[in-house]
Amino acid sequence: MSSFLKRKGIQLTAKAYIIDALSYMALGLFSSLIIGLILRTIGEQLGWPLFSEMGQLAMNLMGPAIGAAIAYGLGAPPLVIFAAVATGAAGAEFGGPAGSYVAALVSVELGKLVSKETKVDIIVTPFVTIITGFLAAKFVGPAISGAMTAFGSWIVWGTEQKPILMSILVATLMGLALTAPISSAAIAFMLDLSGLAAGAATIGCSAQMIGFAVSSYRENKVGGLLAQGLGTSMLQVPNIVRFPLILIPPTVAGMILAPIGATLWPMSNNAAGAGMGTSGLVGQIMTFTTMGFSPAVFIQIAVLHFIGPAVISLIVSEWMRSRGWIQPGQMRIYTGDRPSG
Fold first, then answer.
1. Closest Cα partner for 31 from 186, 225, 179, 258?
2. In 112-188, beta strands by DSSP E
3. How big is the chain by its Cα radius of gyration, in Å?
4. How far apart are CA 265 and CA 258, in angstroms?
5. What is the DSSP string of 24-90?
6. pLDDT digits over 73-92, tens only?
7. How many CB atoms lie within 10 A of CB 157?
8. Rounded to an integer, what distance in angstroms lies between the CA atom of residue 85 and that of residue 81?
9. Within a 13 Å sphere around the CA of 200, how many CA atoms are in the beta-carbon half?
10. Which of 317, 283, 321, 315 is nearest to 300 (CA)?
């Protein structure tokens, strides 16, 4: 059995079904719902109906995009990938983003099992993929989606009731998820984070990206600043594994700033921006979309998403360097040669 599964490219591991699948789900989300929301926002703000129309169309295709993305990420053959477009759509219909994830995961793995095992593969493979995906979407998707949404609503409620404690918790966990090889964007969508909780998550994620970008400037210069500040702090994962103390500066920044954004200077966001941080400035665009386009919001974003994380992370990292807890070269982005330190 193990040799058969290996031949089929099926890996019954947490990495395949949580890390890899969620990461590719995030790519599907970004390629449809998130970019569509950005296009629609541009259209609405600038009075460009064509942008609003194409943005709404992209948003409506979230399910198919998730299905195809997960199938591709799990190494599915072409017929399974194409059929997963339908199963992802079914999942979105019955259970939203979480439903698409479940439907795609089940249908892709079962589709891979039967792929190229018969002489009528062109019929059998999509047939099995679509049927199993639809059944998973209809009978499992709603329960998973309901549980995730309920959990997300508890987080939102808890952040409103205990803004200091919960904002620190949300910012820390979502920030760490963003830096780890787990998709914080997919988590935010499945939990349907909103309001102050989404605002805290955005601050935590931004703190990780900007914090690492600034703290590691001496090692990575302008290229590293942009790659981490506007790309992803995940570039630091190989270094974090070897030198976990380098996680402290950006995490502390998020823990300090999140309560400010939940109490003294409230910031809110939506699920599309909650787990993105400063990646492509999506977190900031969605903050404007949620809070409105105004100079006051611009200042909040500048201070809590960029300036604050940069200053706090730099201060903490320099203090840790002075104590010998962070050594030169430990935050240098891996580019093919072995990191120093």
1. 186
2. none
3. 21
4. 10
5. HHHHHHIIIIIHHHHHHHHHHHHT-HHHHHHHHHHHHTHHHHHHHHHHHHTT--HHHHHHHHHHHHH
6. 999 999 999 999 999 999 99
7. 13
8. 7
9. 30
10. 283
Q: Are the C-beta atoms of 106 and 58 separated by less than 8 Å?
A: no
238-297 pLDDT, tens digit each: 899 899 999 999 999 999 999 999 999 999 999 989 988 998 898 999 999 999 999 999
- Quick one: tokens of 168? 């620190």
The token duo for 70 is 């997960």
Whether the Cβ atoms of residue 103 and residue 137 lie closer than 8 Å to each other: yes
The residue type of 24 is: Y
SS3 (DSSP) at 277: coil
Q: Is 269 helix (H, G, I), strand (E, B) or coil?
A: strand
pTM, 2 dp: 0.80
Residue 329 corresponds to which tokens in the numbers above? 């070269």
The residues with which 269 forms a beta bridge, in sequence order, are: 195
Contact present, 159 and 250 (Cβ < 8 Å) = no
